[in-house]
Amino acid sequence: METNLSKMIPLASISSEKSKPVCIFGTGDFGRSLGCKMLQCGYSVVFGSRNPQASSLLPKGAEVLSHRDAAQKASIIILAIHRDHYEFLTGLTDVLEGKVLVDVSNNLKINQYPESNAEFLAKLIPKAEVVKAFNTVSAWALQSGTLDASRQVFVCGNDHKSKQMVVDIVRALGLTPLDQGTLLTSKEVENYPLQLFPMWRLPVYICTGLTIFIFIYCLITEVIHSYVVDREDNSFLIAISIPNRVFPIVSLILLALVYLPGIIASTVQLYRGTKYSRFPDWLDQWMLCRKQLGLVALAYAFLHVLYTLVIPIRYYVKWWASNYVISQIKSNHTYPFDTSYAWRGESYLALGILGFFFYLLLGITSLPSVSNMVNWREFRFVQSKLGYLTLILCTAHTLIYGGERFIYNTYFYKWYLPPAFVLSLIVPCIVLVLKFIFIMPCLDRTITRIRQGWERNSRYPKQSDKENGKPAV
Amino acid sequence: METNLSKMIPLASISSEKSKPVCIFGTGDFGRSLGCKMLQCGYSVVFGSRNPQASSLLPKGAEVLSHRDAAQKASIIILAIHRDHYEFLTGLTDVLEGKVLVDVSNNLKINQYPESNAEFLAKLIPKAEVVKAFNTVSAWALQSGTLDASRQVFVCGNDHKSKQMVVDIVRALGLTPLDQGTLLTSKEVENYPLQLFPMWRLPVYICTGLTIFIFIYCLITEVIHSYVVDREDNSFLIAISIPNRVFPIVSLILLALVYLPGIIASTVQLYRGTKYSRFPDWLDQWMLCRKQLGLVALAYAFLHVLYTLVIPIRYYVKWWASNYVISQIKSNHTYPFDTSYAWRGESYLALGILGFFFYLLLGITSLPSVSNMVNWREFRFVQSKLGYLTLILCTAHTLIYGGERFIYNTYFYKWYLPPAFVLSLIVPCIVLVLKFIFIMPCLDRTITRIRQGWERNSRYPKQSDKENGKPAV
Amino acid sequence: METNLSKMIPLASISSEKSKPVCIFGTGDFGRSLGCKMLQCGYSVVFGSRNPQASSLLPKGAEVLSHRDAAQKASIIILAIHRDHYEFLTGLTDVLEGKVLVDVSNNLKINQYPESNAEFLAKLIPKAEVVKAFNTVSAWALQSGTLDASRQVFVCGNDHKSKQMVVDIVRALGLTPLDQGTLLTSKEVENYPLQLFPMWRLPVYICTGLTIFIFIYCLITEVIHSYVVDREDNSFLIAISIPNRVFPIVSLILLALVYLPGIIASTVQLYRGTKYSRFPDWLDQWMLCRKQLGLVALAYAFLHVLYTLVIPIRYYVKWWASNYVISQIKSNHTYPFDTSYAWRGESYLALGILGFFFYLLLGITSLPSVSNMVNWREFRFVQSKLGYLTLILCTAHTLIYGGERFIYNTYFYKWYLPPAFVLSLIVPCIVLVLKFIFIMPCLDRTITRIRQGWERNSRYPKQSDKENGKPAV
To answer: What is the chain A residue with the closest CA to C19?
Structure first.
């Protein structure tokens, strides 16, 4: 709720501080918003503009001068102008010498230019100190005070002192500066606001692929087969029944895929007898997107829960239930209560609920603000112990479901295809069996030693390592 | 979990630092808690008290002196006393000269005094530098170390250097300083801890109004009508059936109201041909509380989901279902399975589930810690693309529900009033139709250009704007 | 998403800054990762190693020297080595004089050594300034850039200036420094990463105890009793029915236990007539873990909701329902619709849903990032007002459920044991009755005055207190 506060703050014109003003080149949207915010936080601001007299929308309290005059007054100059217009700065080289130039620009496309805007600027005015900053902040957010998206400001630059001056401004504006190093990183910084969930790409691709495959598989075995063989129109199953088969299957496979790379990494380390050699790239990639994979799997599990809970409201199910009663009456034969069937049905549901519950716990602990409150031991406890518990519960849920179906229903193989849920059990079972092997004392001890820095073929005695640093595989 | 750590830290008496002590006037709750916390963080603290010898509850390691003696020892004096007692400070004017006075006071009511406490203090002791800080932090939180509510400390003051000294203390205590500018903003800062969800007020009012209206509407058409016309007592519908009609209807209207101001803003910009003129105040206000509107709508959608999922547990529904079967048997007539009806019923449920799912995703991304991790492009993608997808799904859900009801049930107009869900479709349909018009290439191109700073009636060539700064309307 | 950014940043070799390099002793996992990160952020790094020429895995851009040479080059030396190897540092006493030694070590067990590693180091090299830091950060997190768990770095040390130097490094690496005071606190800091949810221990113990007790209680009254008396095998109830009795009962008791300590505290304060005397330790402990108690209760409530919603899918329930219809037909007797029963059943469900909804709201506001956005007044409003509303709704939900059961079902006392839900009502009812007494004007006024600092037997006139600082009991 702090947001609306800063918005209502009157412009600070009577500031008692004597510090040199900050100069902003460019009176566009971003320049004005930034200037306004800086004035509110007690800075004195001078705008550099081509038409100093024509800038009616500028915040009160700010001076507007020509570029040259404005630059002379300040030691920090923020360039709120497009890269395309940087050329005109060459005419000001003399006044810009020794000043801190803050490049706030963004491009329209990732890697639009061969070099980053900030590096381009540094080449253009080699005698000024260029600092890249503020490019992740939006003018609208600065204006409205609602910093919903990122408060993080990436700062990079070659000169430590200049960078520190910019970092101080960032902090004074209530934003979070993150030092990214030298100008070499400016390309990354400039690409950042143009990215669209890069870490989610791989999980979403895997998930989409699996979804389509399982969907078609179920469509064939449940709709097309019955249409071709029995001439029955079951197409309405596409709305709920088939998604409710696809979601849990894909979810379980994805959950297993979260734990598979850890198993593979252990195998690799065990085989190599050291942890000091890099994993193959695909494994690194996979391990870094485990969190996202898990969250996609959780989303699917959530959908599975909702789709399951609406079952009794469905017309199809209600019609079937009343028909079932009617047929019992007509045949004058009531089915007796079957305790073992009840046990199976109920424990199948209970396992599913508990699995989903722990799944959700995992999801909640991966919220940034929650995971930031726990230490590494707690984080590993949750992600590893609770994670495997979830995987076991969900696999058991599927196994009992399968058992029930196999025995009591006529889900025989259609066109020689096994029921879809059988597919979902392959990866989880492999992961669980391997994990079970790896936690056997002999192997576990070796892996732990390897992770603590021990090497099988060590050439010289290792210097001690930090326990804390073992990977959370 | 870090919280309990700081609590258990022993008082640091043997601090090797030679820095000047910090003085605290007032040995009340807050003064003591702050002093204790500062001692823990390595500061040396001296209390100023009227009865230096009578203060038995003070933290160990702190000195207690008379006000005058204490003030002389320090360069920063924190005033943990009521505004009403500030007068006595005039007697200390000579020792307070040039010192930093930190005003931590709060009032009991918003705008209790014409001027803020800090400004009053600055007038009283004009030769001291007054800084407002710490008023948002509670004594209890400092004592217990459980900083559940705000870690944010708003700091304002006219002198940059004094402010920086206070900011350093705030940071050393593990709190987050937020520079709010000069003392002019102190009134806002003092009012802040007295506010009660100011951003939520408008959404809650709108929501309450709509809820009451729809509730009465449903009461009339479903309970009162049947009581007056058919002499049937359906009053028990008030518990679940009617809320389950009110919640989805209000939720859908509120969701549409989240996207309506964006549409209006586009229209205004398109009409004016520029984005450089302010929106009317009501539109600004509306746009700033869109997030809260959306969250209220999500809460209602969540209630709708729960109310819907308990349907099969309800006595009324169970009784009705068994009666339905019995009547079929008695009349010896079973209803055949209707595929088209199944399609409608199932897709209606599926759309609802998917709508709710994306709704929830929107809600999760509006959590501060999540939205802080995404960049503007990602935030806009989620809030705009996913938002409209949610609106489309929920509207389709309602439309199919409506279609089903109209055809298969006897929900004809009662007292010439259309069924309530018809009302819920008005705003969403308007929003979707307008949005559809605005994304047509010709209009979309113009709007994009306007948002990038282009003006239809520009007097002189615009200086370039930043792409990044376009509003997330 | 910022995480992957920092990972991809190239090593900054051409840094223009002239600042003294930072030295890292130890080329193990942690030393290397930290060095790499520091290089990325523009620091120049020199490693001290026993085998300077054998360190092939070190990050590019870093120098590797002998310990002595490396230490001489820097003013800050980070010791990424085990405590067991600290002894060799005594040989370097002359070069370490006046330098800042950063102890990053952790132990394998809590309180493994009588004194903390940092204090041990300070004794070993008394002429150096020891600062404890970085022990909560994992090498893997530094390497991969995915700082999922704690970004918080606890810093403690006796010398303010040395500490500040380390704090600056921490901040430059994009981590959050938290000043914990002098080296006296280093033991706490070292124990922190070894803790496993210390605040959750008490709530989990209470919850586990209650769960086991209620589970056995229900097992006796519902399974064993019917088996012994009626020879009926109801064991399948263990899967869903009994958990669905245990979860709500324990949840309600836990929720009441969240509010009981506040009531007790009020009573104590009222009895003593002052707030300036410490509560007994058990009460303090209890009050500090209220949030965790509440969250455990919420988890159980969530499980209760899921277990309830699957009711209509259960085989047992479906079988019973169809049998019910069949028996009605066979006896040719249909039960008429009972409005008062409908009212009870529906309002019982509605109260439960609303209770759960507010419960969830409470849970969401206790997320760190959300509670950090609200001020104390808002936090207290939510936690106190909404909390009691939740308690009232949930208690009413149970009462109506009880009423319904008592009247319509044959749940008579088995073996003289009352139904389990009766047990769940004891604590909530006590809390609600006491709270009701305490909010009566006469008592409420006294409590408020006490919390504002008033004392019944005050010896001398109190100095004014801060309103803001009243505890959120």
So the answer is: A160
CB C119 within 8 A of CB C10: no
Mean pLDDT by 10 residues, chain A (473 residues): 37 43 86 84 84 70 86 90 86 89 86 87 90 84 62 84 86 78 84 85 94 94 87 87 94 95 91 80 88 94 95 86 84 82 88 95 87 81 90 93 60 71 89 92 86 66 40 35
The residue of chain B with its CA nearest to that of A42 is: B181
Secondary structure of residue B126 in the 3-state scheme: coil
Can you tell me the ipTM of this complex? 0.84
Residues C138-187: tens digit of each pLDDT: 777 777 665 555 677 888 888 878 888 898 888 778 787 887 777 888 88
Contact between B1 and C136 (Cβ < 8 Å): no
Contact between A17 and B377 using a beta-carbon 8 Å cutoff: no
C398 is written with which tokens?
A: 């149970």
CB proximity C442 to A under 8 Å: no
Residues C20 and C74: their CA atoms lie apart, in Å, by: 6
Distance CA A313, CA B404 (A): 14
Cα atoms in the Cβ-side hemisphere of radius 13 Å centred on C234? 19
Q: Extract the tokens encoding C435.
A: 């709270």
pLDDT of residue C18: 39
**B393 — pLDDT class (breaks 50, 70, 90):** very high
A429: closest CA of chain B, how far (Å): 29
Backbone angles phi, psi at A50, to 5 degrees: -70, -35
Strands ordered across the beta sheet of C129-132: C63-65, C45-48, C22-25, C76-79, C100-103, C129-132, C152-157, C176-179
> Given CB atoms, is C370 within the 8 Å cutoff of chain B?
yes
pLDDT at C292 over 80: yes
Beta bridge partners of B102: B78, B131
Q: Do C181 and B4 touch (CB under 8 A)?
A: no
Chain C nearest CA to B444, separation (Å): 30
Report angle CA B248, B252, B253 to the nearest 5 degrees: 120
Rounded to 5°, the CA angle B372-B378-B381 comes to 130
**Residue ranges in C273-375 assigned as alpha helix (H):** 281-288, 290-309, 315-330, 339-365, 368-371
The dihedral sign for the CA sequence B428, B433, B436, B442: negative
Centre a 10 Å sphere on the Cβ of residue C237 and count the other Cβ atoms it contains: 21
Q: Tell me: the pLDDT tens digits for B81-96?
A: 888 888 888 888 888 9
Taking contacts as CB-CB distances below 8 angstroms, the residues of chain B near A44 are none
Determine the residue type at C247: F
Q: How many CB atoms lie within 10 A of CB A444?
A: 13
CB < 8 Å to C180, chain B: 5-6, 9, 40-41
Q: Is the dihedral of CA B451, B454, B456, B460 positive or negative?
A: positive
Are A49 and B342 a contacting pair at CB < 8 A? no
Taking each helix axis as running N to C, give the angle between helix C420-438 and helix C243-272, from 0 to 180 degrees, rounded to the nearest 10: 30
Name all domains of chain A by residue range, CATH numbers in brackets.
2-194 (3.40.50.720), 198-469 (no CATH)
> Rounded to a whole number, what is the distance in Å from the CA of C314 to chain A's nearest CA?
6
B395 min Cα distance to partner chain C (Å)? 24
> B159 pLDDT exceeds 70?
yes
For chain B, say whether C330 makes contact (Cβ under 8 Å): no
Interface with B, mutate which of C164, C165, C182 (most B CBs under 10 A): C182
Enumerate neighbours of B (3 or more CB pairs within 8 A).
A, C
What are the tens digits of pLDDT across the range B183-240? 888 888 888 888 888 889 999 999 999 999 999 999 998 889 888 888 888 888 898 9
* Alpha-carbon torsion, ordered A55, A57, A63, A65, to 10 deg: -20
Q: What is the DSSP secondary structure assignment for residue C219, as one 8-state letter?
A: I
